[in-house]
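Protocol step 4 of 6: structure prediction from sequence.
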Amino acid sequence: ESYFNPYAYCWGDNSTGQLGTGSSEKLGIRPKALKREYDAQGGKIKFWFDELALGRNHSCATVKVKKFGTVEEEKRIACWGSNEKFQLNEAVSKVLLSPNYPVTRINKLMFSIDDIFVGSDFSCAAGSQLLGGIENRVFCWGDNSSGQLGSDDPKATTSPDFVFPEPHEVD
């Protein structure tokens, strides 16, 4: 028999809200549950944490959300903490003290998210398009000052882009 706990707990430095508890209170060694619901039109949307990716000033997770009107679940991305370089996939540069609305749209396409990764001021995810032929792709957003997003443009971006637009073999 397995046990499933939909909560995630964090502790430590929380100066930019990177622990997702709803405040920037320093927690030290006292674990606190991350907020796991989002206020949306028509009520609250609850989600369950699947996989966490923790950075110095921001964090992201793959979360499970029930599809509207069904019992099926889909994996989405939620991020929180510092958004100085748009690493939260948010258009405004601000701090989010709890997870943002879990998204599945990448470049206006719906994706099933398999994995999430965070760097210093950028985030990446891996997944496949829900209705279409794009499979097993990595896409990134945030700071690109050192080319970490796989693009020649050094500007930070809120718009996730494929690291390699077309699949290719690596030598």
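Step 5 (inspection) to follow. DSSP finds no helices and twelve strands in the chain.
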